[in-house]
Amino acid sequence: MTAIRAAAIAPAPAPARGRRGRATLYWIAKHAVAIALSIMFVGPLVFIVLTAVMSDQQALTSQLWPKTWDWGNFADIFEKAPLLTWIRNTLMYSVLATAFMLLSSIPVAYALARFKFRGRKLAFLLVITTMMLPPQVVAVPVYLIWARFELTGTLWPLIIPMLLGDAFSIFLLRQFLVTIPREYSDAARVDGCGEFRTLIRVILPMARPAIAAVALFQFFYCWNDYYGPLLYAQTNQDNWTLSLGLAAFRSVHRVQWNLTMAATVLAMAPVIVVFFFAQKVFIEGVKLTGVK
Question: Stretch 7-29: mean pLDDT, rounded?
Answer without folding.
Answer: 63
